[in-house]
């Protein structure tokens, strides 16, 4: 017999002790029972998913499929980045930089015809797979702060594309990354980067570099 929507069911759940403590702390803060806090969070996650579906559908209706999806991807990436930094993009320079670079990565993804989406996604996930990054790090023109910004932006762009079903799973991406790292072209680029980095460091040590 099918259950009615109004029925209450009992489930046995297993989760880590650390998560249980977090839920209990939040339940006390919200003046909920532990059970009530878990239910509230589950319902909130469904509402967010439904709101996202509604926004995506509205944008597609207003601007057409491709443009609507692109604008929805922008909004999702901005939301992810602001959630992680805890700041608004128009109020914090670092957050704005991450948003700008994430939007650029998303536009590139939408604009290019992808022969191997898993490999292209691996370029977003792993810094060493980007030929541009190899050259930048070889010349030591990319600072640690710039690398951190780029990594955060790429991570937000990739998560956005995965949420939209446009990028492969992490397992597929990791498999493509492993395969690409064994490619002679990658090994040649890596060797070139390392050789140039040595020459650049030597020139700096001798006072000839910038």
Question: Can you walk me through this structure?
Answer:
It is a single chain. The chain has 210 residues and is mainly alpha-helical. It has a domain at 64-205. 74% of the residues lie in helices and 0% in strands. It has helices at residues 17-30, 34-63, 65-85, 93-111, 117-125, 131-139, 144-163, 170-181, 184-205. Helix 1 packs across helix 2 (34-63), helix 2 (34-63) packs antiparallel against helix 3 (65-85) and helix 6 runs parallel beside helix 9 (184-205). The termini are far apart. The model is unreliable at 136-140 (pLDDT under 50).
Give the count of helical stretches: 9
Kindly provide the radius of gyration, computed on alpha-carbon positions and rounded to a whole number of angstroms: 23 Å
Helix content: over 70%
Oligomeric category = single chain
Poorly predicted residue ranges: 136-140
Shape: extended
Instruction: Let me know the largest β-sheet.
Output: none
Q: Please indicate the percent range of residues in DSSP E strands (runs of 2 or more).
A: under 5%
Q: Gap between N and C termini, in Å?
A: 77 Å
Q: Write down how many β-strands occur, each being a DSSP E stretch of 2 or more residues.
A: 0
- Mean pLDDT reading: 79
What structural class do you assign from the helix and strand content? mainly alpha
Q: Helix and strand succession?
A: HHHHHHHHH
